[in-house]
């Protein structure tokens, strides 16, 4: 935004504030409109069935490039038990948890562990 527009906008805001009654009405209208918008959005999300994932549901598919430069998708492991570990080198709890995940993976041969590093 250029300075002239900012100065004009500042003047409009000051004028609205000076008219406390109008300013309060404006704030109330904005809050009511925001509440209605949020409620309609939540109704839309609920109606579309986007309520998260429950036990037994399939996870949403996604694809990532592995260390060999090949693209892998979660759907490639359909029917298998999959654990996904999101981690980062700079994250101490992530590094501390790695041995536990490796032990868990060794204990369950049929488990696929996907490690996603940031």
Structure keywords:
single chain; 118 residues; alpha+beta; Glutaredoxin; two-stranded antiparallel ribbon; 3 helices; 52% helix; elongated
Please tell me about this protein's structure.
This protein has 118 residues and is an alpha+beta fold. It has two domains: 3-48; 63-117, Glutaredoxin, CATH 3.40.30.10. Helix content is 52%, strand content 17%. The chain contains three helices and four strands; from the N terminus they run ααβββαβ. It has helices at 3-18, 20-48, 92-107; strands at 63-65, 71-73, 81-87, 111-117. A two-stranded antiparallel sheet has the order 1-2. Helix 3 links the parallel strand 3 (81-87) and strand 4 (111-117). The model has no long low-confidence stretch (mean pLDDT 80).
Task: Tell me the layout of helices and strands.
Blueprint: H1 3-18, H2 20-48, E1 63-65, E2 71-73, E3 81-87, H3 92-107, E4 111-117
Parallel strand pairs: 3-4
Antiparallel strand pairs: 1-2
Termini, distance in Å? 35 Å
Range of helix content: 40-55%
Overall SS class: alpha+beta
Whole-number total of structural domains = 2
The CATH superfamily label of the largest domain reads: Glutaredoxin
Summarize the helix and strand pattern as letters. HHEEEHE
Brief synopsis:
With 118 residues, the chain is an alpha+beta fold.
């Amino acid at each position: 935004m250029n300075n002239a527009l900012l100065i004009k906008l500042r003047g409009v805001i000051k004028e609205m504030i000076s008219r406390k009654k109008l300013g309060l009405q404006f704030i109330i209208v904005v809050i009511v409109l925001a509440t209605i918008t949020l409620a309609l959005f939540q109704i839309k999300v609920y109606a579309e069935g986007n309520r998260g994932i429950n036990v037994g549901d399939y996870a949403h598919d996604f694809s990532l490039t592995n260390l060999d430069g090949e693209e892998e998708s979660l759907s490639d492991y359909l029917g298998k038990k999959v654990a996904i570990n999101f981690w980062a080198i700079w994250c101490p709890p992530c590094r501390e948890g790695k041995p536990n995940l490796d032990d868990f993976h060794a204990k369950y041969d049929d488990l696929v562990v996907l490690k996603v590093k940031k």
